Amino acid sequence: MNENQEKEPLDILVVGSGPAGLCAAVYASRANLNVLVAEKEYRGTGQIAESDQVDNYLGLPGINGYDLGEAFLTHAKELGVEFYEGMADGFTNEENLWMVHMADGSTIRAKTVIYCAGASHRRLGVDGEEEFAGKGVSYCAVCDGAFYRGKETAVIGGGDTALGDALYLSDLCEKVYLVHRREEFRGQASTVQQLQEKENVEILTSAVPAKIVGEQTVTALELKDGRSLPVNGAFVAVGMQPQTELLRGVVELDAAGYVVADETGVTSAPGFFVAGDVRTKALRQVVTAVSDGANAATSAAEYIKKVWQ
Ligand code: NAP
């Protein structure tokens, strides 16, 4: 069934309801545009929900990431933004109209698309990672940390996510190893300092994971230099991969798979805009995601005026 086929096309279909998508929807709604947000996860707010503490969002120091995401969602809902629970599966364009083919078989027609699907967790790529996923290997400390209360864990990575995860786990776990492959950290120096002051955190640099071992669940993380860390859990925080597989052949992507676009969100395909972590940019944070959402909605509104009115 395809109810949407019979209706007037939407002005804007926003794909993804993280901070970028929700901010785009808020701006679109306030501009009196007919906007719908498609989100694969029921009431999802993206990666932000996995952050224990967000200390750099202006005006709200120390806010819990989940609460910040919920506040964004509530704001959009209070403005009357509507949501569609479903996963986009492909995009085609006919005479300036975008057809968004959903995994459930429906097609949503829209004058513009703002794609804000974010990024997914990169895999470490060592033996045992897949075997023990969900049985000692986790990609979200805030989601799974409580299972490791009083136990020993390792966090792998040297960016802000790994540092934040190690800090979060240090309040729950008996011992936390922070395992980073280089000497210098990519994440904020102030968090590294906080970790150095924690008695139950051991920081291992120039330490390259080789294998995650266990029986029913994880028992150790083996390093390439031969060391074996006795841990019950391994938290992998080695960066993100943009969720842009569907966009190959639709818009221009860079070598790493990010959509080529500046802060206006304008892509190589007319009427197709991007916002948030999926676009080429230097700083991927909540504050830059919401700013992208506002800009992309404004660009979409200008495009609709020019092409459709
Ligand atoms: P990231 O900054 O890309 O860091 C990934 C880390 O994983 C790097 O230290 C990298 O090592 C390491 N790594 C990558 N592949 C590896 C492998 N195969 N084996 C071992 N280590 C590997 O990713 P992120 O920490 O998820 O952060 C993503 C973005 O979100 C960043 O811009 C970050 O600032 C932002 N963020 C902000 C906050 C906040 O402000 N509250 C919180 C979380 C994330 P190398 O350093 O050697 O490359």
Strand and helix layout:
Elements: H1 3-6, E1 10-15, H2 19-30, E2 35-39, H3 65-78, E3 82-85, E4 88-94, E5 97-102, E6 107-115, E7 119-121, E8 137-138, H4 141-144, E9 152-156, H5 160-170, E10 175-179, H6 189-196, E11 201-204, E12 209-214, E13 218-223, E14 228-230, E15 233-236, E16 240-242, E17 272-274, H7 286-308
Parallel strand pairs: 1-2, 1-6, 2-3, 6-17, 8-15, 9-10, 9-15, 10-11
Antiparallel strand pairs: 4-5, 5-6, 7-16, 12-13, 13-14
Helix pairs in contact: 2-3, 2-7, 5-6
Write up this protein:
The strands form four sheets. Strands 1, 2, 3, 4, 5, 6 and 17 form a seven-stranded mixed β-sheet that branches. The protein has a five-stranded parallel β-sheet with strand order 8-15-9-10-11, covered by helices on one side. A three-stranded antiparallel β-sheet has the order 12-13-14, with no helix packed on it. The chain is 25% helix and 26% strand. The longest helix is centred in the C-terminal third of the chain and has 23 residues, at 286-308. It starts with a helix and ends with a helix. The model has no long low-confidence stretch (mean pLDDT 95). Helix 2 packs across helix 7. The chain is α/β, with parallel strands linked by helices and 309 residues long. It has helices at 3-6, 19-30, 65-78, 141-144, 160-170, 189-196, 286-308, and strands at 10-15, 35-39, 82-85, 88-94, 97-102, 107-115, 119-121, 137-138, 152-156, 175-179, 201-204, 209-214, 218-223, 228-230, 233-236, 240-242, 272-274. It contains seven helices and 17 strands. Residues 51, 54, 56, 124-125, 156-162, 164, 181-182, 186, 237-240, 284-285 line the site of NADP nicotinamide-adenine-dinucleotide phosphate. The site of NADP nicotinamide-adenine-dinucleotide phosphate has 22 residues, from helix 5.
